[in-house]
Amino acid sequence: MLASSPSRADLFRLLGDEDRLRLLALCEGEELTVGELATLLGESQPQVTKKSQPLREAGLLLARREGTRTLLRAPAPAPGDAVLAAAFGEGRALCIRDGSLARVAGIVAARDELSRRFFEQASADAEVTTPSPAPSLSSWLPLLAPLLPGRALAVDVGTGEGTLLPLLSPLYERVIAVDRSAARLARCAARVAAWGLPNVRLREGAVEDADVAEEVVGRGGADLVLMVRVLHHAARPAEAIHAAARLLRAGGHLVLVELLPHEDERVREQGHVWLGFEPATLRDHLAGAGLTPIASTPLPTAPVDEPLPMQVAVGRRGARLALVEADARAPVPAS
Question: Which end of the chain, N or C, is less surrounded by CB atoms within 10 Å?
Answer without folding.
Answer: C
